[in-house]
Every structure is written in C-alpha cells, then in structure tokens.
Amino acid sequence: MGQVHAQSLPKDPIGGKPPAGSKASVADLDYQVKYQRAFETVLWSMPAVAIYSFTHATKGVGGADNTILAYSKPAEANLETLTANNVTPYITALTDLSKGPVVLEIPAETDKASLYGQIVDHWQLSIADVGPSGVDEGKGGKLLLTPPGYEKEICNPPKNPQRL
C-alpha cells in the first residue's frame, strides 16, 4: 500500500452533507433530547411494566398473591409478554413480601422433567435461579423468601429452608 495524502481524502463528512440551506437549531436539538429521554424511559421501564402486566393478568383471572399460573401451551403472539418464546412452557407466580415471608417449594428434578426458573424482583433482577443450575441443584427444596432487612421471628418455619 502506498501513502495516502490528505488532498485525496473526501472533503464531505462521512454520510454526506445536510440539505442545502438547512441550519441546526435549538428547537431541533431540544426535540432530539426529549425524544431520546422518552425512548430511554421506555427501555428503562420495560421490566417493571412486564411484571405489572403479569400482576394485572393474575388478578384478571381471579388470582392473588402466591397464585401460580401455568400456561396451558407455549406462548403465542397474543400472550403480550416481552421475551417469551414459542417452545417453553411458562409458569409464573407473584408475591408481595411486604405482607410477610413466603415459602416457595421447588420440586426435585426427575428423569422425565425438571423445573428451570428464576426468582426476580419487580425490575426482573435475578434473586436466585432454581432447578438443576439453581440454588437447589435440581434436588428441590423449600426457599424462604423474606423482605429486605426482615428480622422478625418466622412462625412455623420449614425444616432446613434456604433463606433468600
């Protein structure tokens, strides 16, 4: 390869020039800033909105805290969830730990089936994985879920729970 001289480089900015006679304006910049902030707000809120949707749907079918919903078939487009696929059988349950601790019993894996899942907060940040790659290592067990900073005595605690 030979040398490249500055005179041989394109004089226009990459991507071309703005249309002739156009001028950048404060209004354009203000619009772009507002648009970008609105877009970032949508992205930021998506996990919480999805959990809210599950909560609303659970109540819509008569469920309440600790109601387990098992979908009768894999997800289709009308499920209205953000990241579902069409091969995974979904189970969801919601609980409000501000009302007190909850015991979650995880079934042990068998030669025919195993449960892979996550316990997440309202921002869908993972608290624990369950199943063969999770805290129970596929052996099943009882998980004691407590609110942050919970110090009260647990009434009728399960035998040997994992506390989360």
UniProtKB/TrEMBL annotation:
Q: Which SUPFAM superfamilies match?
A: VPA0735-like (SSF160935)
Q: Where is this region: Disordered?
A: 1-23
Tell me where on the tree of life, at the top rank, the source sits: Bacteria
**InterPro entries the record matches:** DUF1254 (IPR010679), DUF1254_sf (IPR037050)
- All copies of the DUF1254 domain together span 70-153
Q: What is this protein called?
A: DUF1254 domain-containing protein
**Annotated organism of origin:** Pseudohalioglobus lutimaris
